[in-house]
Amino acid sequence: MPPKPMKAVIPAAGLGTRFLPATKAMPKEMLPVVDKPAIQYVVEEAAQAGINDILVIIGRNKNAISNHFDSVPELEVKLRDKGDADRLKRVMDSSDLADIHFVRQGEPRGLGHAVSRARAHVGESPFAVMLGDDLIDERDALLTTMIAQHERNGATIIALMEVDPAQIHMYGAAAVEATDDPDIVRVTGLVEKPKREDAPSNLAIIGRYVLTPAIFDILDRTEPGKGGEIQLTDALQELATDAAGPGVYGVVFRGRRYDTGDRVDYIKAIVQLAADREDLGPELRPWFKEFAATL
Question: What protein family is recorded (predicted)?
């Protein structure tokens, strides 16, 4: 029997305090990256990996997310009447990407708690978790590689990326063992946001996971960790050290990743993506050079 189609979970209940006052009334996931909200890039990535059932975990004042992925007949009619086929297609594409569902997290108690809210939707099947702060360039495969690795060994799969050791305190860090594939490692331990001197490596967890349903029972008994939140990293640590289970493996990503969770990196992401666009790049790239020369 072929495996069941995988579902994806996108946690989007955070308050976005680093982007205030822009996020006072607008969800941070709806902040535009060039001309699409950040969360649309994530949904598009899931769809490109063959996932068409997506659960978004939201909090209060997040209705703009569901509105974005809904159809807007009056806008579509207006664009059609104007003969604006290009904008009409882009508006309709966002409504047709996937079958998108929503559930409230309620109290914001961390990523682990947000993932636990997906239990009723995903059931007893493996599923992907995709964080909206990390945008993966559509030209670089990551999620498809992770799904394929899970299908080979049935393990939990996390995405890892080498970072400057001075920055490892901003991430979860992985202790790993090599495999026959230089881009696949076995994870032997995980530490959430360690000090540089305590980090087991400079391999940082980035926002893509393929999880098995075993994660839910572990999350149910996981005590709050750093920041008083239920940390997904703590639950993954238990899976990684369970000798009786399939373990945790990491896919080491060496492609293009855009971090939109920080104000400076958010601006960099917009610049990088806009410069690569065929419709914007030819005009922008010479201007970037001229502007840089004035600094």
Answer: Belongs to the UDPGP type 2 family.
Question: Which residue ranges make up each domain of the chain?
Answer: 7-261
Question: What is the C-alpha separation between 76 and 274, in angstroms, rounded?
Answer: 26
Decide which of 276 and 226 is more confident: 276
CA distance 234 to 124: 21
CA distance 276 to 144: 23
CA atoms of 144 and 87, how far apart (whole Å): 29
| CATH classification (class only), 7-261 | alpha beta
State the pLDDT confidence band at 3, using cuts at 50, 70 and 90.
Answer: low
Q: What is this structure's pTM?
A: 0.91
Q: For residue 71, what pLDDT is reported?
A: 84
Residue indicated by tokens 């006072």: 24
